Each structure stands twice: as C-alpha cells, then as structure tokens.
C-alpha cells in the first residue's frame, strides 16, 4: 500500500475536476462545491484498479477525508 | 454457476435500430457545465437516442429484424423461432415476440416467446435460443434484444436520466452442427433492489402514491414507477462478478485472452467497463465501446456494439467473448466464433 502522500497524489490524478490544492489529505471532501456522486464511483474504481481493494458506497459514507480512506485501505490490504 | 456449451447454432448476422431523436448530455440543464463535463468524461456517454411518444421496443426490434432478413435474403416464413429479450415490452401481455411473429409475417408453426432480462439478457437469450436450436427442430431463428429504458427514467433524476438510451436489435442464427457457443451464467436475486422499478407489477400495483415524487440525497428526484438505481452497489457487483465470469468461461473453453478478437461488454458506463477491462488485462483495442453515441441501451447494448463498432470483422473469422451484467442481479458470458457475419448499418427511425 502506498504512503498517504503517494496515495493522495495518485487519487488526485483521477479526481482532476477539483481545483489545484483544494483537496488535501484532511480536507472534508464532501463539503467541497465540486463534490458529486460521480466521485464516489471514481474512488471505488481507483481503489479496485490501483490496489485491488474493494470499497463500497457504504464504506465511503463512513469516510470524511482522504486520510480516512487511506486508513480504511490499510485495514483491507 | 452454470457453465456449458451448446452445439448447432451459427450466428449469421446482427442488426440494430435506434430512435432518430438524439439527446446531448452536454445540454442536460440539471447539471452545471462542469458537472456535464465530468459526467461525459466518467461515463463516456455524450449522446443518447430516445424513443418518441408511442415508439416501442417492438417497433425498434421489428425494424432491425426486417433489415437483417433483407440483407441475409431470408424469408420471414422460413424463420422457425423468435425470442425477444426485454424489460420494456410493448404490453404487459401478450409477449412482444408473438406480436412480432405476426408483424414480420412468420408462419403460425413458429415458436415465439419473451425473456424478461436486461443487461445480461443478450447472453441469456443466446443461451436459450441456441439450446433450443441444438434439438435440430429449428433451422433459422431470430433473437431480438431491445429496451426503451427511457420510458422509466425521470428527467429530474441526475443519476439515471443521462445514462440510458433506447435501441432494438436482431440477431439471426442458423442451424449448423459445426458451430458451438459456450456460456457461463449466474444469478443473485438478493440484489433485486439494486436496479428496480418499485410499482406497476402485481406486488405493488399502480396506486395514488405511485407518481408522488421523492427528493433523495444529492437532489435526485424519482417516483415509484421510475427506475431506481443504486450506482455504487451495481458498480461493486459488476467489477467483482463480470471478470470472474469471463475468466471462468475462458478456463472452461481452454482459450487464452490473446486468442480473443473482441471482448464486448454490456455498455454500462465507461468507468465500470474500463475497470473490468483493466482487471482482466485485456488490451483497449479489443474492447469496443458505443457509449459515447448511444449510452446504456440495456439488453441491446452488446449486439448494438457488435453491429456498430465491429463492422471490420464482417468478412473475417472472429473469436468473440461477450459479457452482460446488471439488473437481477444477473450476469453471464458467452464465447463463439463467427465467419461470415452480416452487420448492416445502424437504422435511425
């Protein structure tokens, strides 16, 4: 599993609809104006293809930040 | 898991018809311009063809079937078997296949029946029609697969409305003992509510509450006769089960992925299908898409994609691998080889 920094860097490539620097490891991403349900699917696809780890919509509802998501992936690897 | 081979069906041709009316998702006013861009980029769906008032699945499949019979120089009265796959039939009853048996001019001794499946329906339809043809009782057959899904989507539902397009297709099969089709078929009814229309059947008949709209998370508005779709659950299901089914079938037939010319996936959305492709490590050039021009056309999406995006294979011997997955939950894969395959131009009616 990548470090939090590398994980964030890679995921930001997929979530390229957010302005630069608006999305940090501790940002509450659902509160960003650009956030949409489409991003849930992008994150699920990213975790599946990049790490081979399945996360569900319910998992993501329990995460507020990319740090939360990274911690979740650490428990699933 | 049901993995098996049928013997005796050769696929002679595939045709498709879509409504002439085309909707551009970049003009969908419920999404902001940046949301429109994100939607098109993520799903791959820019345009959708949408049935007009009174235009039915049967109309689209009739046009596709009629064109295919003409291109093959087949007479309708020589077709012994017609099977229709749809979840948006012309009537609650009778079966649309029987209406089309008459409309196409097929003989009364022909067999006509409907199959109620969606995203996996084309693969299931092939399995049923080829199993019946294996008996030798049917020499020529038509498999129709189509849906007017837009009849059940709510324009105020940003999560489903821009996904779906309408289409009807026809596949012609001939009895020939030299041909085989291999299948892997699966079902999981515990996921019945991942994609469903709550009212309108006998369980929940249409009543005074049916058309009361509900506002859900994210500003999504639906009523009980609309299509309800749990996007993340369907996504997880599809990227888990479709690759497994495809790999199971390849193992069963002893075929390597390198030997396959085209892997044609149900056109769900680009993100989902690309995740499946990447998990299987299939090269991009072997996995065709029609999402950009037609969207998710449910049971029609696999044959529509073959007819539109694989016309280069008409005269070539081709190893096909198909996989459908979705509503049910239901999923399955099929593998076959074609030689001369008639693929007429898409009809816009």
Task: Tell me about this structure.
The complex is a heterodimer of chains A (77) and B (349). By secondary structure, chain A is mainly alpha-helical. Chain A has one domain (4-15, 26-76). Chain A contains 4 helices and no strands. Chain B contains 8 helices and 15 strands. Chain B has one domain: Peroxisomal Thiolase, Chain A, domain 1 (3-Layer(aba) Sandwich). Chain B is an alpha/beta fold and 349 residues long. The longest helix of chain B has 23 residues, at 231-253. The mean pLDDT of chain B is 96. Chains A and B meet through helix 2 of A and helix 1, helix 5 and helix 6 of B.
What is the structure about, briefly put?
The complex is a heterodimer of chains A (77) and B (349). Chain A is mainly alpha-helical.
CATH superfamily of chain B: Thiolase/Chalcone synthase
Greatest interface (CB-CB under 8 A), with counts per chain:
A-B, 16 and 24 residues
Shape of chain A: globular
Number of strands of chain A: 0
**Span from first to last CA of chain B?**
40 Å
Radius of gyration of chain A: 11 Å
Shape category of chain B: globular
Tally of distinct domains of chain B: 1
* Share in helix of chain B: 25-40%
Please identify the top-level CATH class of chain B: Alpha Beta
When the domains of chain A are counted, the total is 1
Percent helix among the residues of chain A?
Answer: 40-55%
Order of helices and strands of chain B: EEHEHEHEHEEEEEEHEHHHEEE
Report the span from N to C terminus of chain A.
7 Å
């Amino acid at each position: 599993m990548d470090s939090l920094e590398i994980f964030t860097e890679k995921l930001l490539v997929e979530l390229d609809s957010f302005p630069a620097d608006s999305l940090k490891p501790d940002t509450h991403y659902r509160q960003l104006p650009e956030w949409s349900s489409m991003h849930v699917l992008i994150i699920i696809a990213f975790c599946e293809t990049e790490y081979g780890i399945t996360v569900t919509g319910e998992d993501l509802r329990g995460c507020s930040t990319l740090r939360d998501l990274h911690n979740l992936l650490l428990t699933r690897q | 898991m049901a993995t098996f081979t049928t013997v005796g069906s050769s696929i002679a041709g595939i045709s498709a018809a879509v409504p002439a009316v085309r909707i551009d998702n970049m003009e969908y006013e419920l999404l902001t311009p940046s949301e429109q861009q994100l939607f098109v980029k993520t799903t791959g769906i820019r345009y959708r063809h949408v049935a007009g008032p009174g235009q039915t699945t049967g109309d689209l499949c009739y046009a596709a079937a009629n064109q295919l019979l003409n291109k093959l120089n087949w007479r309708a009265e020589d077709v012994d078997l017609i099977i229709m796959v749809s979840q948006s039939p012309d009537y609650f009853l009778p079966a649309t296949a029987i209406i089309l048996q008459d409309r196409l001019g097929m003989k009364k001794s022909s067999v006509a029946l409907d199959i109620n499946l969606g995203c996996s329906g084309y693969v299931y339809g092939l399995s049923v029609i080829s199993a019946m043809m294996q008996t030798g009782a049917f020499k020529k057959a038509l498999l129709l697969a189509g849906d007017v899904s837009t009849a059940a989507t709510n324009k105020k539902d940003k999560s489903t409305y821009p996904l779906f397009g309408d289409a009807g297709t026809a596949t012609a099969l001939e009895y020939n003992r030299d041909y085989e089709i291999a299948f892997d078929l699966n079902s999981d009814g515990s996921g019945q509510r991942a994609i469903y229309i709550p009212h309108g059947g006998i369980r929940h008949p249409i009543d005074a509450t049916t058309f009361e709209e509900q506002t859900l998370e994210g500003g999504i508005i639906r009523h009980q006769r609309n299509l309800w779709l749990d996007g993340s659950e369907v996504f997880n299901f599809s990227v888990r089960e479709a690759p497994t089914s495809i790999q199971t079938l390849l193992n069963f037939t002893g075929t390597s992925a390198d030997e396959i010319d085209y892997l044609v996936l149900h056109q769900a959305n680009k993100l989902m299908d690309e995740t499946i492709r990447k998990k299987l490590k299939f090269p991009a050039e072997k996995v065709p898409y029609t999402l950009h021009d037609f969207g998710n056309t449910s049971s029609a999406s696999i044959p529509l994609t073959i007819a539109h995006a694989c016309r280069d294979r008409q005269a070539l011997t081709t190893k096909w691998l198909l996989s459908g997955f979705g509503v049910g939950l239901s999923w399955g894969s099929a593998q076959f080889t074609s030689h001369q395959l008639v693929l007429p131009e898409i009809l816009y009616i």
